[in-house]
Specification:
The chain has 342 residues and is an alpha+beta fold. Helix content is 31%, strand content 27%. A 7-stranded mixed beta sheet has the order 3-4-5-9-8-7-6, with helices on both faces. The protein has a 5-stranded antiparallel beta sheet with strand order 13-12-11-10-14, with no helix packed on it. Helix 1 crosses helix 4, helix 5 packs across helix 9 and helix 7 crosses helix 9.
Amino acid sequence: MTEPMVDVSLEKPDRAKFSAEEAQTVLKVLTKLYNNGMVSHQDLAETGLDIHDISFALSILRSGGCELVVGDMGVHLVRLGFAFVPLMLEIMLSQEKIDISVRSFVETGSTNDECFAAAAQGFDRPLAVLANMQTRGRGRRGHRWEAKAGQSALVSLLLPARELPIETLSLAAGLAVAESITKMTHRTVELKWPNDVLIDNRKIAGILIETRPNVKNPALTDYVIGVGVNVMQTHKDFPRELAKQAISLGMINRGEWDISNVIMALLEDLHRRCNPLASGDEIVPLWRARCQMLGRHIRIAHAGSVLEGTVADIDPLEGLILRDQHGLNHACLASQTTILSP
C-alpha cells in the first residue's frame, strides 16, 4: 500500500478556518520525533486528518517558527517554534508525570515577576513560566541578564506556599541546572557559589531565587527559581566585557538546539531536586563535588564589610564559610554577600 504524501506547499486550503485542536493533533504526532527522529506519512495519516488538513497544520507549525523537513520517508521536526514550546512542554511533562503547569510569553519583563503575579492571583500549584525574550531580566544584586530573542532558555519555576530553607534551595537549584547541562553536553560542569554554572570556567547559566509572602497565607512563602541558560549565542553576541567569561551550549556543541528540550531537561531536574526539596545532607556533598571555589582565596563584600580569605566550606544553612588570615571563620549568607574577586 502506498503511503499518502503530505503537500506542505498548500498554504490556502479550501476551508476558512482550521481548528487549534487539529493543529495540536499534528504536533502531538511530531513529538514522536523526540524519540524516533522521523514521523512517517502513515503516522500522520493515522491522526484521522485528511491530506489537506495535515498540509495546513504543517503550514501553521511553520508559521509559528517550526523548521520542518519533508521527504519521501516522512516529516522531520528540526526545530520547534517558540509559539508551540508550551504545548510541547505540557505533553512531555504529562508523559513524565510531572505536575507543573506552563505559561509562556513571547516577550515579558521578567519571568520571575510573572510567577509572582500568578501567585498573587491565587495560583497554588508549581508553575513554569518561560519567555522568548525578557526586557527586564535580572540576576543577583540587580545585575541585568541580557540576551537577544530566541538565544537563551529563560524559565522560572514557582513553588507556592512553602516553608523551605533558602540556602538549601539555592544549592539544590544550582545542582539541578548543572546536572541538566552535564547530560546535555557530556562536559564537566562546575558550580560557583551561590548561583553561577560554569563550563571551562566560563558562565553558561545563572540562577536567581526570590521569595515573597504567600497572599492567602502570609505565614508561608512563595519561592521562584529563575534560570537563564545561554543556548544559541556566539562570541559576538556577548558584550565585550563578558566575551571571555561566558559560553553557550551552541559554542560547546555546534548545531541547532531545541529550546523546548533544554527547558524540559531543566524542569525535570529542578522538579527532582526541589519539588519536594531534597535534604541538605543529600545536596551538599553533590554540590561540593562540583564547586570550583573550595580552597581558593577570594575577596567578598559581606554585610557592609569587605572580607578576604580562603573558602573553607559551603554550608546549607550558613552559606559560604570564609576563613580569614587569622584563622577565623565567617558564615556568609548569599543574600548578604557579593564575590568581588577572583
